[in-house]
Amino acid sequence: MCDDRGVSGFDVDVAVVGGGPAGSAAATMLARKGWRVRLHERERFPREHVGESLLPASMPVLAELGVLPAIEAEGFLPKYGATMVWGRDPDPWSWSFRESSPRYPHAFQVVRARFDEILLRNAAAAGVEVREGARVLAAEAGPDGALLRVADGGGERALRARFVIDASGQAGLLGRARGLREPDPFFRNLAVHGYYAGGRRLPEPRANDILIESTADGWLWAIPLHTGVVSAGAVVDAAFGRERLRALAPERFLREQVAGGRHTAALLDGARLTGAPAVVRDWSYASRELAGEGFALAGDAACFVDPLFSSGVHLALSSGVLAAALATSALGDAELGRAAAVAYASQYRRQYRHFRELARLFYAGNRTVDSYFWEARRLTGGDAETPARLAFVRAVAGQPPAGYERAVLAHGETPRGFSEAVGAVERRRRERAAAFDARFGGDPDALSAIAPVLAADARIERAPVVGEGEYVWSSTVVTPDRPEGAPVSDFVARVVALIDGRRTVAALRGALSARVPPESRGRLPAHVAETLRLLHVEGVIERFAGGDGP
Fold it and tell me: What Å distances lie between residue 108 and 65, 219, 223, 286, CA to CA?
């Protein structure tokens, strides 16, 4: 990290635009690194916000930020999973987080006004200069830093920062100014949502679940909150929604949509709206560029994917932490910063694609309703847009479990090519593992005369990876399935670098022994065997030449 503070000509090291989860997370992590951080938030907290349903994948991020105890003490309802009316079965079905997230078997259904305030106050406690009621009117960024124009109670003023993180939500300050935002052609939707008092909850043991129900016009959500209020909304086709909203007020439109969902309507029977519903028209999108010289986009300012799987807060928190790591690296080392910007964009897009592909496949597989909305998404949701094998890799393989992947895909009627790809990828992994174990398992010496052969285009590259709050140079292994690279240990990198298709495993061990402490050399054959098995199962090693290996 760079040690020089108070660089001449700059008011702060990092300016953060927006005090939602992305901005608060980024600012907190940066302040811990000792940078001078100023966060500008146009509203005054607490303020209402939609997106109350969290994922277990966010729990370790909240723990890292130091806010998990406060969130647990707030009384928010624990969320153990979800109940859906979707896929092939017209009756409700449920899934539980504990099936794929044993460490964090639940998340929370939060009141965003309070949840976001906890995050923002945590940033201030970490040393961030938080300015509420301060609207950033414009921002420019480049290799010489960033220039912001800010309006608050004292008028307009300029602010010079060495780096800016745009976490301004769907307003997308930098993205819109640079023309970076591109709409997602598949999710052509809009939403109308509001809060109901007096609603019911699902029967135990699913009382805390979010209910998601497909209808003829789209789908509905109902999220119970610990205050007794239910957050409810309708997602419909954008063109249909615009036309109906010209004829109906949002409240009447929402009531009409809720009436179309038998199970949602039962939960809200007799409930009353606590205020005027809101309309969200600016739906799914992504930015062509997520980071560059002097800036990064985080949270909804960077991209927004259909909220079917409650991914918004998780993407915001995760990208906020990564954006802070990028800023720290860029301020300390310009060369590392440029490489880290590429790595940041790749990591963010990988997470975005994960949720996007799951939602796309699940939309395409819904058969509970026959209507224009679903037929249109079936026609555009087939294999032509994304090859089936790549869709599987993006949707499931190599991702930290969010808590529902297998369950939701199993209940949908997925495209045939996708289902075949899932089977082919997983079958090949099982076959590789079984073949390796049958030939070499339990006897490292049986590998001695065999020469491993790398898969085409598999290689080791030097790339930035996230360390302790910043990017650091590390080794990654690149394969056709992982073009962005997967971080590996120095030992694994040395093994891959030594594989040339001719060198035997005995020769590999000999070359590696010089780099291993004498007291560990007895373990080397087994360690090499374990590494080769993993690389083979993952497809980095295509085959073993010589003998009768797999």
Answer: 16, 22, 11, 27
Q: What is the rounded CA–CA span in Å between residue 217 and residue 205?
A: 29
Closest CA to 210 of 305, 106, 70, 363: 106
pTM: 0.86
Q: Which CATH superfamily is domain 12-350 in?
A: FAD/NAD(P)-binding domain (3.50.50.60)
Residue 536 CA neighbour count, 13 Å, CB half: 23
- In 3D space, the residue among 231, 360, 368, 347 whose CA is nearest the CA of residue 284 turns out to be 360
Q: How far, in Å, CA of 432 to CA of 550, rounded? A: 7
Burial of 473 (0-12, 13-18, 19+ CB in 10 A): middle
Question: What value does the mean pLDDT take over residues 147-172?
Answer: 94
Q: In this structure, which amino acid lies at residue 284?
A: S
pLDDT, tens digit, 9 for 90 and up, residues 440-468: 877 888 899 999 999 988 999 999 999 88
Q: How far apart are CA 141 and CA 156, in angstroms?
A: 19
For 479-510, the pLDDT digits (tens) are 877 777 888 888 999 999 999 999 999 999 99
Residue extent(s) of CATH 3.50.50.60 domains in the chain: 12-350
